[in-house]
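Dear colleagues,

For the upcoming journal club I promised to circulate an example of a predicted protein-ligand complex. I picked one with adenosine-5'-diphosphate because it came up in last month's discussion. The inputs are reproduced below in full, followed by the predicted structure.
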Amino acid sequence: MFEKVLIANRGEIALRIIRACRDLGIRTVAVHSTIDSEAMHVRLADESVCIGPPAPRDSYLSMAALVSAASVAGADAIHPGLGFLAENATFAQVVTDHGFTFIGPSPDHIATMGDKIAAKAAMVEVGISPVPGSDAAVESDAEAARIAEEIGYPVLVKAAAGGGGRGMQIAREPTILAPALALARREAAGAFGDSRVFIEKFIEKPRHIEIQILADSYGNAVHLGERDCSIQRRHQKVIEESPSPVLDDAVRAEIGARAATAVRQLGYLGAGTLEFLFDGRDFHFIEMNTRLQVEHPVTEMVTGVDLVREQLTIAAGGKLQFGQDDVRFDGHAIECRVNAEDARTFVPSPGRVREYHPPGGPGVRVDSALFAGCMVPPHYDSLIAKLIVHGPDRPTAVARLARALDEYVIEGIDTNLELHRGIAGDRDFSSGAYDIHWLERWMDGA
Ligand code: ADP
């Protein structure tokens, strides 16, 4: 096992990794920008290194600064967390080239899965069906029109390098296709520096269901069930739960086994997630995330598996200590993403937290780096906390969610806690009857 791990991240996810390292007796090195010098991840790590000014490109995205910090601190591995450089194949390569272990999959797998077109092609090879659509970047409007006619409208134009729900345009009819392509190309070039786009069938009312997998370097791969992430705003997840209210044990076992087999065949290493749109009958692959996900705690709560511990063990060359038959699914877990943002406009709301009182009691877990008096800087993601509840069944989990949200006090900055309270108290949410567009419809009517 590693002796010292540098965590190339901040906020709640840095804390999450520090905690897993502590449990394993691994020393930790936090990195921070100048504005984060008092942050909780710096306080809880064994050591810390300042890596630059607040702007992410000069600190948390600076490969040179991160690798230098790892050298100075004498770390033997780097955990990228999520966001920032977690899905940057070059970073994984640079880390390895400098003699550190990258806690994650190979640069090749990161590069393939980071390109939605290449990812779909790779998945087809291992028996996973993607959403119907183009199997390469569309070169011209005429070609796009031909593919759209073939798969049928409505279609979605997506950025090959897309992420964070950006670079997507729906075309419900042929006349809209050319403008949608132009818009998506422009958005993709601006956001990702890569204007390649492709076309997919727009699936009307699916659920977003993703499968968590773990694979070691000895050819073992398991799945840890699904997460239903259909409560979304602008294609971004707001609430996630496991199990999905719409899957039964047989369907879970079947799609899970397919996902585990696929990653085994790909020779994938570590934790990963295969994302699907589920139309009630079929699973359509959309993308694979080659890292820990924000919503990983719901899987941890129902399986009892510590995903970060497994990432560390696998990266250190360890074997998975359990097989598929050992994975047990216990009860129900739900996670709310608590963001520092205006409740109505969703504009980020950074600032100083005046009062902080997290909820507690049976079945409640809070992953957050907040404390009373802490600063939420304007430079980073607005996710400030994850509230995760667990119960023996879904109604108990929903009741605990409502209870925990009522207890939660964050003062000094605006948050979306009220939105979560509204959702937790809603009848559709309680019944589990929702799809990926439900939240936006609900907000329009609210
Ligand atoms: P990103 O990488 O930007 O997050 P994804 O491909 O993971 O993009 O898709 C994000 C969300 O966008 C999905 O969860 C779903 O809500 C919506 N979406 C993506 N592809 C489709 C599709 N073909 N039909 C309908 N909705 C889609």
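Two points we might discuss: The mean pLDDT is 97. The longest helix spans residues 174-192.

See you all on Thursday,
B. R.
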